[in-house]
Amino acid sequence: MEVICGGLQKKNYTIDDVEETACPLCHSTDRRQLHKEHGSIGVVKCNNCNLIYVSPKAKNSETNYWGDPKKYYEEARLIFSGDLPHHRDRNYKQELDIIQKYKKSGKLLDIGTNMGFFAHKALCRGFDVRGVDPSESLSSIGKEQFGLQIENSYLTTCSYNEADFDVVTMIDVFEHIANPTDNLLKAKELIKKDGIICIKVPNGNYNAFKLAVYKLLGKSKDRDIFDAYEHVAHYTTKTFAKVAEQAGLQIKRIYIPKPIHPPIWHKLTGHYFQYPSPPYLDMGNYTAREILHLLGKAENALRLSTRFSPDLLFILCKQNN
Predict the structure, then answer these.
(1) Residue 313: CB atoms within 10 Å
(2) DSSP secondary structure of 21-46
(3) What burial letters (b/e) apply to 172-204, b meaning 16+ CB within 10 Å?
(4) CA 257, CA 250: separation in Å to the nearest integer?
(5) What is d(CA 62, CA 289) in angstroms, rounded to the nearest whole number?
């Protein structure tokens, strides 16, 4: 079924659609292949620093989000009207609850603001919110629907240049970034001396675990596990600690966030909608994610290598703070 959606990602990428890249963390090209997705896109693991990353990757993958604003609006219009919640509302609530353990209020810069769902929740919590997003299509909707102040730019080229923010957030964004150290250095520049950075990413160990299970079942061929058409790096607690150290940041704490339950209306209607779908429509995956989340929390509490949690959330600060 052809699904109507605002994004420009493709099901299949030819050799002309992709490009080889070095490791985003250590810049080595010594790697081994783990998986292939969407045709010619590769998922590899760096033999030098162990980062899981994408090579060859889709050229200009960030432009997946530069689609038709009318289609994007249709994906979420009942959220804007207040008739339905967003499928990540419970995730946004938890993420803001965590942030407010460190900063009750203040000036917050949200990187990769998209249509503004998280930023709007932060605004409602009392934060003075700014946003940065390279997609004119998405940022224009956030400005219009929520009245948000969103700069249409990348973090590394945005106009903000002073240590003016109490909080910088990258929620489900950092995995899209091909130059992670440069972005963390810029984020560090923008937070106050006692400011924090909140970053949430998919767990690379979890995706590697899923791949191993599918291989064991003989079902790994061409399966979309890493969202490799848009996610260019897949962090573990160890590889994320390395990029934080490169940027002169320290990790205050690692949290195991609630799993995201992607809506599956598109499988029924042929149109992608961002509203939560009933758990019974996807009960197997829904239940598995909840169980693995609990196992991930237990691993994290015991300071074990976190394999079962789908996502990781890091609170960072400047060193010695």
Answers:
(1) 21
(2) ---TTT----EEEEEEETBTEEEEEE
(3) bbbbbbbebbbbbbbbbebbbeebbbbbbbbbb
(4) 19
(5) 27
pTM greater than 0.85: yes
Question: Tokens 């990258």 sit at which residue?
Answer: 170
Along the 321 residues of the chain, how does pLDDT read in single tens digits?
A: 678 999 999 989 999 999 999 999 999 999 999 999 999 999 999 999 999 999 999 999 989 999 999 999 999 999 999 999 999 999 999 999 999 999 999 999 999 999 999 999 999 999 999 999 999 999 999 999 999 999 999 999 999 999 999 999 999 999 999 999 999 999 999 999 999 999 999 999 999 999 999 999 998 887 899 999 999 999 999 999 999 999 999 999 999 999 999 999 999 999 999 999 999 999 999 999 999 999 999 999 998 888 999 999 999 999 887
**C-beta of residue 42 within 8 angstroms of C-beta of residue 197:** no
Q: What angle do CA 10, 86, 262 make, to 5 degrees?
A: 45
DSSP string, 99-139: HTTT-SSEEEEEES-TTSHHHHHHHHTTEEEEEEES-HHHH
Q: What are the residue ranges spanned by the domains of the chain?
A: 65-201+236-318
Q: What is the CATH number of domain 65-201+236-318?
A: 3.40.50.150
Amino acid at residue number 54: V
DSSP classification of residue 274 = -
Q: Where are the alpha helices (DSSP H) in the chain?
A: 69-80, 89-99, 117-124, 136-146, 180-190, 204-216, 237-246, 265-269, 283-301
